[in-house]
Design brief:
single chain, globular, about 30% strand, 7-stranded mixed beta sheet, alpha/beta, 4-stranded antiparallel beta sheet, binds the ligand Nc1nc2c(c(=O)[nH]1)N[C@@H](CN(C=O)c1ccc(C(=O)N[C@@H](CCC(=O)O)C(=O)O)cc1)CN2, Rossmann fold, Alpha-Beta Plaits, about 290 residues, 2 domains
Amino acid sequence: MADSDTQRAILLLSCPDTRGIVAEVSYFITTYNGNILDSQQHSDPDTRTFFMRVEWDLAEFTIPAGKIASAFEPIAEKYAMDWRIEFSSRQHRMAIFVSQYDHCLYDLILRNREGETHADIRCVIGNHGKMQEIADIFDIPFYHMKVTKSNKAEVEKQQLDILEKEQIDVIVLARYMQILSDDFVSHYPNQIINIHHSFLPAFIGAKPYHQAYQRGVKIIGATSHYVTADLDEGPIIAQDVARISHRDSVKNLVARGRDLEKLVLTRAVKLHLEHRILPYGNKTVVFD
Ligand SMILES: Nc1nc2c(c(=O)[nH]1)N[C@@H](CN(C=O)c1ccc(C(=O)N[C@@H](CCC(=O)O)C(=O)O)cc1)CN2
């Protein structure tokens, strides 16, 4: 029986839907003595696209990790798959971007320290200096880079240099209040995770709680999504909501929203780190 320390392989694939894919993928794994621990699939009726995530224990797998992809290649070609293989032993290298709100930053760091998530948090980058003291508590390098309309391009270049130096492969915007340029985003496709403090697609852009209050809504929400050039319109990963009423002020909405934002962002980050998300177009298949 696999325990949490056993190295596991995760195969993620999408391809035109047809019969026999699950059987052939499972046969490939079991032929080489792999023990399948989790297997999920979805067939999208609109696009007739098949999606699959299968995870198996490598303890007695007879193909070395570095040669699994080449061994699987013929099956991938046969079904015209878009696919990748990940390993549980590879730890993500994470950068967290912040502005002036600390709740999501604290939550991400503490849950990672508790072992709820398993990332190597390499740095925090803030356009305000307020969060430096939090990064210092946890001995995480903090880069304060003030952003103005005139220096935004230069700051983004400096940010990209840091991300490259640190070999970052996942960026979390923990209430980071600067819109990233198309160029910046293009460097990290489906690798930048944002928490937007509304139930998208409602209230895109700045100050969604103020927008919700003015609209008189009875539910507020939080949405975590991959960041694209289109503000707050990237593939949605996770959402949650809370009921509110006419008795709630904007201040109440902000307070109620903080808990939602933390839970939704951590859920999305955990799903990403465990390779449970398959983006397609502007949607996602989430194998949770
Ligand atoms: N390219 C993208 N960048 C960012 C996204 C995104 O979806 N695509 N999400 C935002 C986060 N966000 C809402 O969740 C958001 C942040 C900031 C703004 C905004 O209008 N910012 C102003 C400056 C505000 C300030 O200086 O305090 C601006 O950039 O001109 C709207 C929505 C993160 N980035």
